[in-house]
Amino acid sequence: QVQLVESGGALVQAGGSLRLSCAASGTIFSISTMGWYRQAPGRQRELVAIMNTGGTTNAADSVKGRFTLDRDNAKNTVYLQMSRLKPEDTGVYYCYAEVTAGARDYSGEYYYTGPDLRVWGQGTLVTVSS
Question: Which of 25, 61, 81, 128 has the fewest Cβ atoms within 10 angstroms?
């Protein structure tokens, strides 16, 4: 079982900043891609930014230069630093991870078992007021 727990969503004024966090926990052997999507009211879920294990980031054009994605592989955690927020950034932000499941051996280390999973968090609400 793998879970993603998000935090950091809040109400903020336009031009302000927020930092979202997402921590993965459970029977994890490895995480390849990890990042964030968002869904505004009445719209489809869309990519915000995701990062692979090599550190390559894919971000939406609308957030480039304003949002920064950081990842702590040792903690299975990803952070989204959002600056110069705009009302159109309002929405529910979902953490996303591509996880390979594992199991613990006698020494406490995780070994590969599979399967490969696509895991979503429950979402955290970001509201930007004008």
Answer: 61
